[in-house]
Write a structure and sequence with these properties.
Blueprint lengths: L1 E10 L6 H8 L2 H5 L5 E7 L6 E10 L2 H18 L3 E9 L1
Antiparallel strand pairs: 1-3, 1-4, 2-3
Length: 93
């Protein structure tokens, strides 16, 4: 089994509350946590209004499938989230 972690750091300029932050990030956990081989967590800045960091852990039988899953997640996140993506990091375990 292969495991990969995608970590995405966001800036949410002008965000004034945690409720607004959740709305702008558009339910990352609900959308991407439905995949049977993906776990989703808000990994940093949970109490900050204008910053967020989310991690997505994918597991599969092959490194290629993990990489493809993380690439798909990355593309969907970039196109669907109302926030600036500051940094994206991938790590294969």
């Amino acid at each position: 089994m292969r495991i990969g972690v995608l970590t995405v750091k966001f800036a949410l300029p002008g965000c004034r509350s945690l409720k607004e932050k959740r709305q702008r990030l558009g339910g990352l956990r609900e959308r991407f946590g439905r995949h049977t081989n993906v776990a989703v967590i808000e990994s940093n800045h949970a109490d900050a209004h204008q910053h967020a960091e989310w991690s997505f852990v994918a597991a599969a039988q092959s490194l290629q499938l993990v990489d493809r899953t993380l690439a798909d997640l990355e593309a969907k996140i970039i196109e669907s989230v109302d926030a600036q993506v500051l940094d994206i990091a991938r790590e294969m375990i």
